[in-house]
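User: Hi! Is it possible to get a structure for several chains at once, not just one? Here's what I have:
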Amino acid sequence: MSRPSMWRWPVVIGAVSLVGLLSALLGDGWADALSWALLAVPVVLSLRGLFGGRRRT
Amino acid sequence: MKTSTLKTWAWLHKWSSLVCTVFMLLLCLTGLPLIFHHEIAHLTGTEVEAPELPPDASLAPVSVDRMVATALALHPDRVVQFASQDEDDANVWFFTLTPTPAPTDDFRSVAIDARTGEVLAQPRFDEGFMWVMFKLHVDLFAGLPGKLFLGFMGLLLVVAIVSGVVLYAPFMRKLDFATVRRTRSTRIRWLDLHNLLGIVTLVWALVVGATGVINTWADLLIKYWQHDQLTALLAPYAGQPTVPVAERASLQASLDAAQRQAPHTQLSFIAFPGTAFSSPHHHTFFLRGDTPITAKLLQPVLVDAKTAAVTAAPPLPWYLSALLLSQPLHFGDYGGLPMQILWAALDILTIIVLGSGLYLWVARGRRPVEADLPAGALTAAAPTGAAR
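Assistant: Yes, the chains can be modeled jointly so their relative placement is included. Here is the combined structure:
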C-alpha cells in the first residue's frame, strides 16, 4: 500500500482548488479574490516544477 | 500494490488516455480563446455597445413588441426564436432569427438599443475564427452526435484522471512530493513532471472535465424537462398548433406579467412559441436572480402566447440547476479577468500533462510499466521482494 503521508500535499492542494473553484461562485468581492489566491496554488507549484532549476535531484 | 494490479491500472490509464488525448488537446486549444471570447470581441470591435446618449435626451422606453417588429422587418422571411438582454448593458437587446422555430445553425442576430429602438448592429456570431473555435469545441460541426461524442471523450478523460491518481501512488511512494529528478534521463524528468502537474491540477481538471461532459447533455436535459415537467402543464393545449404570430398577445405585457410573478429577478432570455426552450403555446421567460449564486440559476415563467396570462412558473428541477451551475464551472467566467487568466494557465498545464503523457507512452516503447518505478515501490507477490 502507499504511505499515508505521501497523500498529504495532494489532498491539501485538492481541497485548496475546490474552495478556490467554489468561492467566486458563491460570493463577490473578497470571495473572488480568495478564488484567485487559491487557484494560483496549483499554477505556481506547476511552474516551480517546470522551471524550478536543479535544486532537487 | 501488486504487479498485476499495477498492470491493470496502467492498462486502463494508457488506453483511456490514448483514445481521448487527441480530442482533449483539441478541446484545450479551442477552449483557450473561448475563455477570453468577451475580451476578444471587445478588442476586435465586434462587440455590440450602446452609444452614450446626451443626458437631456427625453426617452420613452421602447416596448419589446416594437423591437421584435424592427428585427423582423430586417428579416421578413424569418421568425424570432429568442430575445435576450445583454448581461452587462440592459439597454442592449439581442434577437435571434431563424427560418423556423426548430433548432438550427442558420441564424441571424439583430442588436437593438432599448432606449431608442434603433438597430445597433447585426452581428454575425456564426462565422469567423471564434465561431470555428466554438463549433470545434462544442460539437465538431456535427450537432448533437458530435456533442455526445465529445462528452464520451470527456468521460474517458475522467477515467484517465482517476487511474492516473491510482498510479501516482507507486510512482511517488519513494519520492518526496513535487520531486523532479533532473539529473537522470529526459524521460524520468518528464515522468516526474507528468505526475506533479497531473496531481496539482487534478481537482480543476476533474471539475472542468465533468462539467464539460454535463454541458454536452444540455439538449437532452432540456428535452427531458419538457417531457417531465411541461407535459402536465400543457395538457389543456393538447392538439393545438403553434400559436400563429398574428394571434399572439403583446410581448411587453407578457414580460411584465412574468416579472410580477417572480420579483427580484432580471430577464435572461425569452424563448418564443414552438422553440426548444418553450412550448408551442407560450412565451417562456427565463429570469435570473440577483445574488451571485441565483444569478446563475434561471426561473422559467410560461406565459400564454394568446392571452399574456401566466400559466405557470415551475421551479427549476435539480438536473437543470446542475446544468446551469456546471456552465460557469466549465467556462471560468465567474470571477473576473484574474480567474480567466488562471483558467488559461490551468488549461495550458493540462495541455502539458496530455503532451507529456503521450511522450512517455512513445518513449517507454516496449519497456514494462514497472521498469520506471523507483526501487522498492512495489509489494511483490513473493515476501522476499517486499518493499524495504
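Residues 3-35 of chain B form the longest helix (33 residues). Confidence is low (pLDDT under 50) at residues 380-388 of chain B.

User: Great, thank you!
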